[in-house]
Amino acid sequence: MIYEGKAITVNLIEGGIAELKFDLQDDSVNKFNRVTLEDLQAAVAAVQGNADVKGVLVTSGKDVFIVGADITEFGEAFKNSEEEIAAWVAEANVVFNAIEDLPVPTLTAIKGIALGGGFEMCLSTDLRVMSEAAKVGLPEVKLGLMPGFGGTVRLPRVIGADNAIEWICMGGENKPEKALKDGAVDAVIAADKLREQSIAMLQSAINGEINWQARREEKKSKLKLNAMEQMMVFETAKGFVAGQTKGHYPAPIQAIKSMQKAANFDRDKALDVEAKGFAKLAKTSESNALIGLFINDQLLKKKAKDYDKQAKDTNKAAVLGAGIMGGGIAYQSALKGTPILMKDINEAGIQLGLDEANKLLAKRVEKKKMKAAKMGEALNRIRPTLSYGDFGDVDTVVEAVVENPKVKKMVLAELEDQVSEDTIITSNTSTISIDLLAEDLKRPENFLGMHFFNPVHMMPLVEVIRGKKTSEEAVATVVSYAKKMGKTPIVVNDCPGFLVNRVLFPYFAGFAGLVNHGADFQKVDKVMEKFGFPMGPAYLLDVVGIDTGHHANEVMAEGFPDRMKADFKTAMDVMYELERYGQKNSKGFYVYETDKKGKPKKVVDEAVYDLLKPIVAETREFTDEEIIERMMIPMCIEVARCIEEGIVDTPNEADMGLIFGIGFPPFRGGACRYMDSVGMAKFVEICDKYAELGNLYKPTDRMREMAANGESYFG
């Protein structure tokens, strides 16, 4: 034994090879935390002082190589100044440089995933091989950061600047075929042969059959591009990336700038450039928001895992009501391996549901995400039926009939008599109270809401809605099933609109007020899209469906009349009365034409302004700031109410619900983090500017208390 620590061991094996093995104690994965970095420094020093070492093989004792840096630990360092963060990064890089400077050849055998700092560790060695099941990449941009352990320096010199820009700016997990094609690894090996063949390749380097010194020198030198080539590569990339990010995500651009600046420097100077770029990003609000989302996501996963302990398995599911939504739910369940019955009252509905599932599966085959045989297997997991005959052994049922309480109550009562006493019944309702739907059920403890978002296959969120009588086992079972379907479940308590629609409709109310007071709806759309939403409120209503929105708005107005019941006729009312339902009938706030790909294309319809004239005050110009404030304040206050009333457990879950459910701009982190970025005292002061607009703009007492005490949601 050359070295033994809490995260790393070094043993001398055959042929003078030192095996440096990452195996972090008391953790299921390897990651770069302080313990691992300290161990690595000590382990490399031990190797340097051992004359018997002829080569170093880097391996993992776990199913993964290294998942990356422990952001929950290193995030604390981001509270320091830019200079201090850059110095901390430089200190960490001393360890990776020491590996790269060892006087013997080095090789990393990549098992499982090597991401972020884990892949940067791989890049510090002379050779890299990966198993057929491994993935590698630098996903730091997804946290609003860029690589900081040498990724922007070594990767361009290993795979070329063009490829490195793609890898770093896309932040993807790259499969073996791509990694080998681009030159990020030297070989791809069957998992069961990885160790054996890695040792053989390293032995070849020790024997002088592989020129590892030349490879190392190239990594440590300037980038081999002349001035013109550099300008073409980096300037073109900056222009393209700026167009994609629309100025909202600074990390990819900063990464390109750092690579460009470091191109003419050797390793040590180039690493200084990287450290400064990393430190600059670490202090941005975007990085703070995206790291916050990562931590929120970890919390959701932990809570979902805790529910697994109480959950019953869903080995067979059912959906009532086929059509587009039912077909989407059936597709998602079948795709992820859970057989599902799809029941409807007529053949036409069944066919519509099957067509939807078939279309979605065919698209996966077309995009080479699935083989035709697997598509057949998935389709076979969907069993259409017009009767309840096979419902006796179903574990979980999703009711997805029309959004009408009378119809739903009738169907649910009928269903309850057809399933076993242990079957969990859920309703895919977007607004109707779960307690109302449970009133006539014999087993309300087995009933709750399971709100999917449309389109089901694309929207990651499922709201799991707990009624007053819902058992924890039922909640746990549905959370587990949602997870099994590949969705992110958030558990909320019952109220009109639950979480997502309850906070979305005050946002629409803000829009209604703006239009009523003379704002141009197209300008409102543009401003909110610039703010970061994928689409503005008018366009979103067209996509959701004006009739759907109008119905939901009535439910919300009845549930919260003090602030959600308009005392004037709204633009949505006008569209609804004129049967302009949006994309579904090709006319709403905009009109829709079919583009070359068969998708609806939004087109401006100037006639809409005349249609809105009777409800609009004298047209006036609103500043972007006014539009943002009048749109965002109602939504944010409603989120605060949901937290205070216990509709949602934590600000973390509230923010994730908005990100996944309505497309809240990720770089702003969610409504709670947005309020934190403004500062609660300032936010309340802005609200008070609009006091004359009524309760929709009135902060809660708790918000005023937070403002007075200097409190925030995330500390």
TrEMBL record:
In the N-terminal section; belongs to the enoyl-CoA hydratase/isomerase family. In the central section; belongs to the 3-hydroxyacyl-CoA dehydrogenase family. GO terms for biological process: fatty acid beta-oxidation. GO terms for cellular component: fatty acid beta-oxidation multienzyme complex. Residues 316-495 form the 3-hydroxyacyl-CoA dehydrogenase NAD binding domain. It is an enzyme of class 4 (lyase). It catalyses: a (3S)-3-hydroxyacyl-CoA + NAD(+) = a 3-oxoacyl-CoA + NADH + H(+). One of its GO terms (molecular function) is 3-hydroxybutyryl-CoA epimerase activity. Signal peptide: none annotated. Pfam families: 3HCDH (PF00725), 3HCDH_N (PF02737), ECH_1 (PF00378). It comes from Bacterioplanes sanyensis. Pathway: Lipid metabolism; fatty acid beta-oxidation. Residues 497-592 form the 3-hydroxyacyl-CoA dehydrogenase C-terminal domain. The keyword Repressor does not apply. Keywords: Fatty acid metabolism, Isomerase, Lipid degradation, Lipid metabolism, Lyase, Multifunctional enzyme, NAD, Oxidoreductase. Its EC number is 4.2.1.17. This is enoyl-CoA hydratase.
